[in-house]
Amino acid sequence: VLRDLLGSFENIEVVGEAKDGKDAIEKALKLRPNVITMDYKMPDMDGIEVCRALKRNPDTAAMRIIAITGKQLTEEQEEYLERNTECLLKKPFSPSLLLKRIDALRGEQA
User: Fold this and answer.
1) pLDDT at 12
2) How many CA atoms lie within 13 A of 72 on its CB side?
3) 39 has which bridge partners?
């Protein structure tokens, strides 16, 4: 669903999609995306575990992450994601809000 939404924007190229948390880390290392959008709930690892792994690795530490969740997070989970990602979006959100966040992050990298 997220891939379809992102693919509907003319100025966004989806370079990969991961089937689970471990795959997300591997693809981040291989594909070097400008911005990572990831759902908090993934098989194998949750969004916090993936974020920790990416931020600890010097090759991926600077990657911009947008975490998306429809899950009720604990206060600790929410605080972690707010501190360690560039954006935390809670479902439902408008597609235009996601596009604005991605554009802002890409602009910061220029």
Assistant:
1) 84
2) 0
3) 68
